[in-house]
Design a protein that fits this description.
The chain is 24% helix and 27% strand. The strands form 11 sheets. The chain has a 4-stranded antiparallel β-sheet, with no helix packed on it. The longest helix has 17 residues. By secondary structure, the protein is an alpha+beta fold. The protein has 2 domains: 231 residues, Potassium Channel Kv1.1, Chain A, CATH 3.30.710.10; 292 residues, Kelch-type beta propeller (Neuraminidase). Strand 23 and strand 24 form a beta hairpin. The protein contains 15 helices and 35 strands. It is globular and about 80 Å long.
Length: 571
C-alpha cells in the first residue's frame, strides 16, 4: 500500500510541495552530494543525509541537530534499534513522501516513528487491516499491553464483527499466558461486548478460563449481563434506553454515497451517506453545489467522487464535476466527448470508463476513458451493441457492460472490454432481459440485479456471471422488485438501493448475504430515489464526518420503532 503526504511551501497558487520538488534533493542524497550528516546504525549501515530536510520532517532530528547541549554539532549520529532496511524506507518517506507499508514492516515502521505523519498513517493502516493483522501478525503478539489496548479501544478500529477483537485478545494472552492472563479484565473493557453475538458471549466469553479464574472480570461480566436483561425487557420499561459504550458501533472506514435522482417528481441535488456499522442514512448538509442531476453515473478515484453526465431536467449533459469527500469542495473537470444520460460507468486502474447512454433521441455504443492526471477524455473502441440503461463494473482488469436497452428492445446480452487490446467481446447472455438494472463485481463474479423486463415492469430477480466458465447462475430474488436502482459493495456485502417499481420510487435498501444466498432489509434512505447514482469511498480519513452521530440512541430508536408498530396493530 502506497502512502503519500505533502509538505507546505510558498507557491503562489497555494498548492503544496510534492514528490517532484523533492526528487532533486533525493537525487543529491543518493549521490552523497551536499550531505552534511551521516546516520550510522548498529548493523553497520551508514546513510548520508541533509540535516535541514530531516529537521523539517522530524521533531526528533530537529532537536538533535539544533540542540546547544553538545560541545560540537551533531553530524555523525549513531541510532540504536533500527536496521538498515527500515532506515532506508524511512528516508525514502522523508525525501519522497512515499513508503510501501505492508504486513511485514508496519510494526517496525511504527516503532521508528521519526515522522508524526508516518506514525499516523501506520496506525491507520493497523486499524484498517486489523482483522487480518490480528490473526496473522507476529509483531502484534510482542506488543506491550498498553499498545494493544490503544489499538483495540480505538473508535475507528475496522472490524465488522467484534468477535475478531475478542479472538485477538485471546491470541495475545495465549502467546505468554502465565504472564499475560492477568490483563484479561482491562483488555475486555476495550472489546465491544454488547456487539458480540449473545450466544457467543454466554457460552464462550463468560465461561472462558481466563475470565472465570480472574475475579476482576466479574464487574465486566455483570454489566454485560444486565445489559442483555435490559435489552430483552426493552418494551417493559418506559424510560429511555441509551446505548452503552460497549454496545456502540465503531466508526467505519468506508462510506457509501448516494447522489441525486428522481424524488417525488423532482430531480434531487441532495446527497446521503450510509453508515454500515450503525445501519443509518445521513443527509449530507453540503448537498450537490452544482445543482440537481438524474440518470448520471458516479466514479471514485482516491477521495474524489466524479459525477458524470446525466440530465439536469432540461437536457442530457456531457459535463463532469468532482467532489472531494475530504475537503468537501466541488469543481468542474473536462467534459466527455459526448452527452450521455443513462450511461454505464466503471473504474479500472485509476481510469474512469463510460460506455453507451442516451442523448439526442439516440442510444450510444461509443465509449470513452478519463485520466484525472491529464484531465482528458479519450475515445476507445465502441461496444458491439447500442446500449442505454445498462450497467458496468470492473473485474480482473476488464470492464463488463450488461443489459440495457438498444432502442429495439430490452437486452439480455453482455460484453467485456479488454484495455490491453482495446476490444469488446460478447459473453454469454443473461437469463433475463434487463434494462435499468445494476451490476457489481463481488467475490470474483459479476452480479446483475433488478431492472425492467418490459415497459414499467420491474423485476426482483438477480443472477451472477462466472468469467472462468462464461456462465450465469440465478441468485435469490430481491425482497422488492425495482429498476433504475443502485448496487454497491461495502463491508463485504452487496447493497441494493432505491429504484422504481410499477408505482413509485423507493427508499428501501437491501443487503445480500452470499453465504446464505438471501436478501435482508436494512435501514431505509431518508429520501425516495430512482435513477440516482451510488459509490463507495474507501479509507476515508474523515469518515466521522459522514456517520450517524447519535450512536448512544440506537437502541432507544429501535424501541420507539417497535412501540410504534405495536400501537398501529392495536388500533
Amino acid at each position: 500500500m502506497e502512502l503519500k503526504q505533502e509538505i507546505c511551501c510558498s507557491r503562489q497558487d497555494g498548492r503544496c510541495m510534492c514528490t517532484e520538488e523533492l526528487s532533486s534533493l533525493n537525487d543529491l542524497r543518493q549521490k552523497n552530494l551536499l550531505c552534511d550528516a551521516v546516520l550510522r546504525l548498529d548493523d553497520g549501515g551508514a546513510f548520508p543525509v541533509h540535516r535541514v530536510i530531516l529537521s523539517m520532517c522530524s521533531e526528533y532530528f530537529r532537536n538533535l541537530f539544533t540542540t546547544t547541549l553538545h560541545a560540537r554539532e551533531q553530524n555523525d549520529v549513531l541510532l540504536h534499534g533500527v536496521n538498515s532496511d527500515i532506515m532506508a524506507q524511512i528516508l525514502d518517506y522523508i525525501y519522497t513522501r512515499k513508503v510501501d507499508i505492508h504486513y511485514g514492516n508496519v510494526c517496525q515502521l511504527l516503532r521508528c516513528h521519526f515522522c508524526a505523519g508516518l506514525e499516523s498513517h501506520a496506525r491507520r493502516f493497523v486499524s484498517r487491516h486489523f482483522a487480518h493483522l490480528s490473526q496473522h501478525s507476529e509483531e502484534l503478539l510482542e506488543m506491550p499491553v498498553e499498545e494493544l489496548q490503544a489499538i483495540i479501544g480505538a473508535e475507528d478500529l475496522n472490524v465488522k464483527d467484534e468477535e475478531v477483537v475478542w479472538n485477538c485478545v485471546l491470541r495475545w494472552i495465549d502467546h505468554d499466558a502465565e504472564n499475560r492472563k492477568g490483563h484479561i479484565a482491562e483488555l475486555m473493557t476495550n472489546v465491544r461486548l454488547g456487539l458480540i453475538d449473545e450466544t457467543l458471549f454466554l457460552e464462550r466469553v463468560r465461561h472462558h478460563p481466563y475470565v472465570t479464574d480472574n475475579e476482576t472480570c466479574r464487574p465486566v461480566i455483570e454489566e454485560m449481563q444486565k445489559f442483555l436483561h435490559d435489552k430483552e425487557m426493552i418494551l417493559a420499561n418506559d424510560k429511555e434506553f441509551l446505548t452503552p459504550k460497549f454496545a456502540s458501533p465503531r466508526i467505519p472506514h468506508d462510506i457509501l454515497f448516494v447522489i441525486g435522482g428522481w424524488t417525488a417528481g423532482t430531480i434531487a441535488d441532495s446527497i446521503e451517506t450510509y453508515d454500515t456499522r450503525a445501519d443509518r442514512w445521513i443527509k449530507v448538509e453540503e448537498g450537490d453545489p452544482t445543482g440537481p442531476r438524474v440518470c448520471h453515473g458516479t466514479a471514485v478515484v482516491g477521495f474524489n467522487i466524479y459525477v458524470i453526465g446525466g440530465s439536469d431536467g432540461v437536457q442530457f449533459l456531457s459535463s463532469v464535476r468532482c467532489f472531494n469527500a475530504v475537503t468537501k469542495t466541488c469543481h468542474e473537470v473536462a467534459p466527455m466527448n459526448a452527452s450521455r444520460g443513462y450511461l454505464s460507468v466503471a473504474v479500472l486502474g485509476g481510469l474512469m470508463y463510460v460506455a453507451g447512454g442516451y442523448a439526442d433521441s439516440r442510444r450510444h455504443r461509443t465509449a470513452e476513458r478519463y485520466d484525472y492526471r491529464t484531465n482528458q477524455w479519450s475515445m476507445i473502441a465502441s461496444m458491439n451493441t447500442h446500449r442505454s440503461d445498462a450497467s458496468a463494473t470492473a473485474l480482473s482488469d476488464k470492464i463488463y457492460v450488461v443489459g440495457g436497452c438498444s432502442g429495439d428492445g430490452y437486452l439480455a446480452s453482455a460484453e467485456v472490454y479488454h484495455p490491453q487490446t482495446n476490444q469488446w467481446t460478447n459473453i454469454s447472455p443473461m437469463f433475463s432481459t434487463r434494462s435499468g438494472l445494476s451490476c457489481v463485481a463481488f467475490q470474483g463474479s459479476v452480479y446483475a440485479v433488478g431492472g425492467f423486463v418490459r415497459a414499467f415492469g420491474a423485476t426482483s430477480s438477480g443472477e451472477k456471471y462466472d468469467p472462468e466458465t462464461d456462465t450465469w447462475t440465478q441468485i435469490s430474488h430481491l425482497l422488492n422488485p425495482r429498476g433504475n436502482l443502485a448496487l454497491q459493495v461495502i463491508d463485504d456485502a452487496i447493497f441494493a438501493i432505491g429504484g422504481f417499481s410499477s408505482e413509485t420510487s423507493s427508499c428501501q435498501v437491501e443487503r445480500f448475504d452470499d453465504r446464505r444466498n438471501k436478501w435482508y432489509e436494512v435501514a431505509d434512505m431518508n429520501t425516495y430515489r430512482t435513477a440516482m447514482s451510488a459509490c463507495v469511498v474507501k479509507g476515508l480519513p474523515n469518515a466521522g464526518d459522514y456517520i450517524y452521530k447519535h450512536r448512544d440512541r440506537l437502541l432507544e430508536e429501535k424501541r420507539q420503532r417497535i412501540l410504534t408498530i405495536l400501537r398501529a396493530l392495536t388500533v
